[in-house]
Every structure is written in C-alpha cells, then in structure tokens.
Amino acid sequence: MKDILKIVERALDDEIASIQHFRENLDKRISECVELILKSKGKVVVTGVGKSGDIAQKISHTMSSTGTAAIFLHPTDAAHGDSGVVGKDDVILAIGKSGESEELNYILPTLKNIGAKVVGITANPKSKLAELSDILIITPILREACPLELAPTSSTTIALILGDAIAMALMELKNFQADDFALYHPAGRLGKRLSLYISDVMRKDDKNAFVSENAGLDEILKEITRKGLGATGVVDSNGILLGLITDFDIRKILTNKKLTENITAKEMMNISPSFFLPEEKAYDVLTKMENRERPISVAPVVSKDKKFVGMVSLHDLLQKGL
Fold it and tell me: pTM here?
C-alpha cells in the first residue's frame, strides 16, 4: 500500500510551489483591477464555471462582507436572463484557468454591451477570455496537485487567494473598520463580539436592583432576592451610584459579627465597585470581569454622569454566546 502521508505531502508541496511561483511573478495589472473597482459606482459581479464558479462564489461573499458590494452570477443563468442584474457601472471578475469555457465566454460580450468592464483571471494569456477582457490578470500555474494534471487544484487555490487579496486591498483602501465589519455580521459569535454592547445586555428599569443608602437589612435582602442578581446597587435621591452590596459583602459582615438589625446600606456597601458604561462592548466587559485577579460575577452600569442605569452579570453575558 502506498504511503498516504507522502501522497498528501506531495499534493501540498505542489500547491505551495505554485502559490510561491504566482507570488514571485505577480501580475502588476492586479493594481489596475483594484483601482477600477475603487473608482466604480457599481458592484462587482464574480463569475465562473465549475470549480472556478465555486471559487467565484466564495470571492463574492468575501467582498460583500468586507465593504465591497459583490454578487455571484452563473454564466448559464446569465445567458437565460439573469444578465439583467448587471449594470453599466459594474465590474466583472471572470475566472477560468484555460480561458476557453464556452459558457463563460458566451456571456461576456453581452455584459460588455451593457457597459460593464471585464477583468479576466486566467492562466492562458492567448485564450478567448483574455481577448474579451478589459484588464487581464495572468495566474501562472506550475502544476496541478492532481497526479493526472486534470482536477483543478493549484489553479483554483491561486484564484481563491488572488480574490481574497483583492478583497483585502479594497478593504484597507476603503478604511473598512471593525465596526463596519460588525454591521455586516450581526449573527454568530464573531458578530456578537463586535456588535453587542452592554446597553443591549444589562438588567435595567424594573429588572435592575437598587436601594437607598438608608435601606435596612430586610429591604436589602428582599431586593437582592427579588431581582436574582446576587447584588444590589445603592443610590442617592438623584439616582447616582454610591456603592454596591453583593452576597459576598453580606457574608463578610456576618463573618466579622458586625451584622445588626439596624445596619444600613450605607454601612454595608462597597463604595468603589468596578463599574462599566452602557456603550462598552459586551465582549470587552466579559473579558475584564473574567480576567481580574479576583473575577467578578456582577457589576453596576453607570452613565457618564454617574447615574446607576443597570447591572451586568457574567451569567447574562455568557448566555449571549460571547
């Protein structure tokens, strides 16, 4: 039986060698492509057939999520009416290793007649795709990783990383930032970490726990139990946070035998608790709460004028899937 690992290593080596060769012979017309897209008032339409079509779909998704409006258009669908989605200000990224795909080349004259500019990405500079392109990017391939030199492997990998690189160049030139990324990725852990703020998670209004500085032990215990946070804020008559009382604070006073029936919130509270602002990112707060020398499970949230507006708990943050 052949050594499976050696077969895998050879396939990887073949693709790596082709990538390195592509990197060392990078087509300078890539810059023209990026500049064309930057100046365009339309979108990017990425197209290709077969495995190149699969790569084209991935590239369009990457561009769309990083600030460059893009769609995938299948050449067959385009030939049967879907070319109507293309506008005169659009840029077409047409991907094909041989550049001789009939389905792809058949639709390009129509897209050019609409007014769109065509950027061809191919390994064959003498192909029909090359002839139809306004900007031609050559992707030289040393060899496919396929032992028969038939299955698209190195060629599709190079088309993919070129598309990624173009998307990243556009992203940087457009100054696309993390907040922009969050806008396009509201779901999933990544989106939540970028877009969820403490104001979205904190317990507020009637779910928030607070007492006055003169509140007695009975009132304090009832508020902590009723709100289920294991803590209560202590506020003055203007709603300004004065301190925080947690289960830990009560146990500490009880252990020190200082707990009396007449004790007040003012005597029990921690006057300098850690607190957060509503506009802080929820994930940043979760990290701060967990990475302290002594982690905390609950903390008050205050406005810039020190008003007590809510309470954030570690449990609530974790439940959000951060």
Answer: 0.71
